[in-house]
Amino acid sequence: MSNVGIVIVSHSPLVAEGTADMVRQMVGDEVPLAWCGGNGHGGLGTSVEAIMGAIDKAWSEAGVAILVDLGGAETNSEMAVEMIGEPRAQKIIVCNAPIVEGAVMAATEASGGASLREVVATAHELSPS
Amino acid sequence: MSAGTMDKVDLKALISATADAIAAHAEELTTLDQAIGDGDHGLNMKRGFEAVRAEADAFAAKPLPDALKAIGTKLVMTVGGASGPLFGTLFMALGKEISPETNRANLAAAFGKAIEAVAARGKSQVGQKTMLDVLQPVHEALLQGKTGAEITDAADSAADATVPMKALRGRASFLGDRSIGHMDAGARSTALLVRAVAETIEAHA
What region holds the PTS EIIA type-4 domain (chain A) (predicted)? Predict the structure, then answer.
C-alpha cells in the first residue's frame, strides 16, 4: 500500500485499541494501521519492542506517522525510531498532537494519498503550540 | 574510586551491586513516584536491572564499551516507562564514548557525553527536577578527582536538592507547584546507582 501508515502508542492498550477502532471507522483499510499499549508486563506503560513491532506492521514506503499520548510514549517512540535506524528512520515521524484526534485526522489525510509531511502537518494543526 | 586505570573493574560485581541497590529500594522509588508521578518507577527499574542481572555473564564477557551498550539496550527493552530510554541512553552513550581500558579522565569525559545524550533524549536540562540534577554534580565531582565517597555524597545531596524544585519535565510537571516538596524518583534512583558503582569500584580497587 502506498498510503502513509499510522501507529498509535498509548500507555493503555484500551486507549490504543479504541483509538484504532475510531481510525478504522473513518478510513477502513485504506491506511496501514497498528497500535500498541501497555508495558508488555500487564501494566500501563509503553514498550520499545512493541512500538518497533507496530511500526513494522504499519510500514509503508510512504512513511509512518506515530501518535502518542503522554511523555513516556513519546520518549519510547523516539527510541524505537532510533533503534530501527536508517534508511527507514527518516520516514518515521512522532507527531505532536492529541492521540485520538491526531490519529483520526492524520489517517483521514493519509487515506487521500497525502505525503508524510502533509499527514504530520494535519496532526500538528491540532496542537496548541 | 582510585585515580588511574580501572582495569580491575569487575563488571559482574557492578551489575550485581546496581541490581541489589535498585531491588532494595524499589518500594521507596515507587512511593516517591506515586507522590508526583505515575507510581511505576520502582517496579520498572527493578524489572530492567534484574533483566540485566540475568544476563550478567554474557555482558561481562564483552569488552567494556560493548557491555555498556548492550546493558543500555537491555534497559531500553525491559524497563517499560520513560526511564527505559533515559537510563538506557545513559549506558548506551557511556559505552559509545568510553575506552576499553578506561581511566578517570576517560570516564569523566565519557560521562559528560552520556549526560548530553540523556538530556537530548529527555529534551531536558539541569534544574528541571530530573535525573540530570544528580548526573551533573556527579560529573563535576568526577572531573575534580573526588573520591568515591565524595562522589556518592554529591549524588545524595543532589537528589535531596530536587525536593524544593518545581518539576518542569515528565509526569510530575503536570502537578506544577504541587511537585515542590517531593524528591524526584529518577534523581533518587540515579543516586542509588552512583553509590552502588562507587562503592563497588572502591572495594575492588
Answer: 3-129
Phi, psi of A68 (to 5 degrees): -125, 160
Active site residue A11: yes
Instruction: Please give the domain boundaries of chain A with CATH numbers for all domains.
Output: 5-123 (3.40.50.510)
Cβ–Cβ below 8 Å for A48 and B77: yes
**Taking CB atoms and an 8 Å limit, are B85 and A41 in contact across chains?**
no
Residue with cell 501507529: A7
| Omega prior to A128 cis, within 30 of 0 | no
Residue-level pLDDT, tens digit, chain A, 129 residues: 589 999 999 999 999 999 999 999 999 999 999 999 998 888 999 999 999 999 999 999 999 999 999 989 999 999 999 999 999 999 999 999 999 999 999 999 999 999 999 999 999 998 876
Domain with residue B106: its CATH number is: 1.25.40.340
